[in-house]
């Protein structure tokens, strides 16, 4: 065998080794097993285990945290990570992912979405909506509320009544008007 053939041989050996991995011993859920004293492969979780989808998570989903600066800052950060790729930083739905062919999300600034309760946004993050998949596995309940609060703030930012502006901003607006 020439030295040149050695890398090829190494590759082939690796492939053979990989093939063995397809056929490893494992248990199916309800199979018998001599590993545990009750003879079952599937074991109860240890006492005191708290389920991630149990009462704690449900309570956190039902309790709307008080709106404060810290919640909004958290929501802004999480929104940037999980939602901006599709919904874009201002919430018009012109993110990078739709620009590459994923169905375009609706703008958060439509009449209908401007009027939704924050709970609807929490529900969309939890369950998904149409072609948008659920973010429940990546965004814990409190963060869902934080993101919902931030989306409401984004909506206000694009549709603020004039009376909410500072005197200085109102002045600038008046000057900018033709
Ligand atoms: C991969 C792209 C993508 C990401 C990321 C994404 N969305 Fe969406 N979202 C969509 C699409 C597409 C729709 C429209 C779905 C439909 O109508 O079938 C949508 C719809 C929505 C709606 C409107 C629901 C309604 O009542 O019409 C809300 C609210 C929303 N998304 C919130 C979020 C939030 C909050 C995040 C971040 C946690 C997020 N989305 C992340 C793609 C995305």
Describe the structure.
It comes from Martelella mediterranea DSM 17316. GO terms for molecular function: electron transfer activity; heme binding; metal ion binding. InterPro entries: Cyt_c-like_dom, Cyt_c-like_dom_sf. Keywords: Heme, Iron, Metal-binding, Plasmid. This protein is mainly α and 178 residues long. It has a domain at 55-158: Cytochrome c-like domain (Cytochrome Bc1 Complex, Chain D, domain 2, Orthogonal Bundle), CATH 1.10.760. It has helices at 5-21, 55-62, 69-82, 84-87, 96-99, 111-114, 118-127, 141-157, 167-176. Helix 2 packs parallel to helix 8, helix 3 (69-82) crosses helix 8 (141-157) and helix 7 (118-127) packs across helix 8 (141-157). The radius of gyration is 26 Å and the shape is extended. The structure holds heme C. Heme C (HEC) binds at residues 82-83, 85-87, 97, 102-103, 105-106, 121, 124-125, 129-132, 135, 139, 147, 151.
Put the structure in a nutshell.
Residues 70-155 form the Cytochrome c domain. Helix 2 packs parallel to helix 8, helix 3 (69-82) packs across helix 8 and helix 7 (118-127) crosses helix 8.
